[in-house]
Amino acid sequence: MGYFIRAFCTLGELPPLRSVLASAADHGSNLALDPALTSPHTIEDTGWTRAGIGYKNNKAPILLEVNRDIEEEDSSMREEVEEFLEFLEDAPRNRHRRRVEKHLKNTRFIVSAQLPTSDIDEDGFAALGHVLEYFIDNNGAIIQADGEGFYEGRKLIVELD
């Protein structure tokens, strides 16, 4: 079973993985695509939907999955956004909640990261942090962590159970 962290992105288009990995390397995380889970052609593709990101030998990869707004009524991305809008109904009504609601409604794509909770260490958390920073800096992402809530940067702004 994994632990999920999501980047709700409102700006631009999905980047190729090469850009994300290069940014992580600039921050000290040397990451690689897991060849068992990801085609090598995916690194240049802006249409990728899944990828395994290796951060250390002999550790399970971090799994990334993308949901895009396909602008159709049955969009799985829109369904996911609606679920989180429903979760927010239990949060205190304040400016942070309104900010998150507005952000969710303007989401263009979601990058979900599944962390292998039984096989991740501090380097894995740091690596994921560098991946998420890319989406924050380049795609206007706010971050949602299961069992925690919504973050703006590193600050928890809306707590969810």
Please give a structural write-up:
This protein is of the alpha+beta class and 161 residues long. Helices cover 32% and strands 27% of the residues. Helix 1 packs across helix 4 (122-139) and helix 2 (76-88) packs antiparallel against helix 3 (95-105). The two termini are 19 Å apart.
What fraction strand? 25-35%
Strand order of the largest sheet: 2-3-4-5-1-6-7-8
Order of helices and strands: EHEEEHHEHEEE
CA(first)-CA(last) distance: 19 Å
Write the layout of secondary structure elements.
Elements: E1 2-9, H1 17-26, E2 32-33, E3 50-54, E4 62-68, H2 76-88, H3 95-105, E5 109-116, H4 122-139, E6 142-145, E7 149-152, E8 155-159
Antiparallel strand pairs: 1-5, 1-6, 2-3, 3-4, 4-5, 6-7, 7-8
Helix pairs in contact: 1-4, 2-3
